[in-house]
């Protein structure tokens, strides 16, 4: 079975595309000739991302989708497949991280975080995986987190969801390899997005970057380039892998 990579004109779905890493991934793919399907709950953010991608000549199909809702995932995926004709790539980037300590976390918050981050990844992959398998080609890239490996105060729910994504990536890769699909994950370190800025100032984030071997925190574009690589022909012999992109931070005690 020959497993291929992204080709110009292929359609790629990006979840959580309204800002941050998701937006950077969409823009990077638009520069590489992708046709894009953009998912998020924010209509305003999606419109901004669509405009940036359209400026690069990309065709965009925009859908408001809450990936915490499996029924909405299924209906939106069917609509996207019908609209695009075929889908080659899926980037599972959507995620949430409400800060709360273990002693204070409620069942509802725990379910909400795992519902969006982990179940969203699972059911988006299910919805598009069957279609990709029918085509005999496709690639999925999941967004994990360094917190999956290190844990984090006030974020056990988030760390658990991202650890689950690392495991799910391997399982999906094993289950779909015979169908010609690949599945890998990216493990970003601290990156300049809205998420870490929820409890740190920009100055504090950049101060943390001084302790990273490469001397800075990540930018969304740093992550986006690796996502594009994992979708590409250059990564055709990679599947089931989780790739840290953190400037070497994982080596710092």
Could you explain the architecture of this structure?
- With 253 residues, this protein is an alpha/beta fold.
- It is built from eight helices and seven strands, in the order βαβαβαβαβααβααβ.
- Strands 3-2-1-4-5-6-7 form a seven-stranded parallel β-sheet, with helices on both faces.
- Helix 1 links the parallel strand 1 (11-15) and strand 2.
- Helix 1 runs parallel beside helix 2.
> Overall 3D geometry?
globular
Helix content: 40-55%
- Mean pLDDT comes to 96
Largest pleated sheet: 7 strands, parallel
Count of alpha/pi helices: 8
Number of domains: 1
CATH topology: Rossmann fold
- Give the neighbour order of strands across the main sheet: 3-2-1-4-5-6-7
Q: Which series of helices and strands comes N to C?
A: EHEHEHEHEHHEHHE
Please name the CATH architecture.
Answer: 3-Layer(aba) Sandwich
Strand content: 15-25%
Q: Which stretches are poorly predicted, pLDDT < 50 over at least 5 residues?
A: none
Distance between the termini: 43 Å
Estimated radius of gyration: 17 Å
């Amino acid at each position: 079975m020959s497993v291929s990579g992204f080709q110009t004109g292929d359609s790629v779905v990006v979840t959580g595309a309204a800002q941050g890493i998701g937006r950077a991934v969409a823009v990077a793919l638009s520069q590489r000739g992708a046709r894009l399907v953009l998912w998020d709950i924010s209509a305003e953010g999606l419109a901004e991302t669509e405009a940036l991608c359209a400026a690069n000549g990309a065709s965009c199909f925009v859908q408001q989708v809450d990936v915490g809702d499996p029924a909405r995932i299924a209906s939106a995926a069917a609509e996207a497949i019908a609209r695009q004709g075929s889908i080659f790539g899926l980037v599972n980037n959507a995620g949430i991280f409400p800060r709360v300590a273990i002693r204070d976390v409620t069942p509802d918050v725990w379910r909400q975080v795992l519902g969006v981050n982990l179940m969203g990844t699972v059911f988006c992959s299910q919805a598009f995986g069957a279609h990709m398998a029918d085509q005999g080609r496709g690639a999925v890239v999941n967004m994990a987190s360094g917190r999956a490996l290190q844990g984090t105060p006030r974020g056990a729910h988030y760390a658990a969801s991202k650890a689950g994504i690392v495991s799910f990536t391997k399982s999906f890769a094993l289950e779909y390899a015979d169908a010609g699909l690949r599945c890998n994950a990216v493990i970003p370190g601290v990156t300049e997005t809205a998420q870490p800025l929820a409890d740190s100032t920009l100055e504090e984030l950049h101060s943390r970057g001084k302790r990273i071997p490469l001397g800075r925190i990540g930018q969304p574009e740093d992550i986006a380039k690796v996502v594009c690589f994992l979708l590409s022909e250059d990564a055709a012999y990679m599947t089931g892998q989780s790739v840290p992109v953190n400037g070497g931070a994982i080596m710092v005690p």
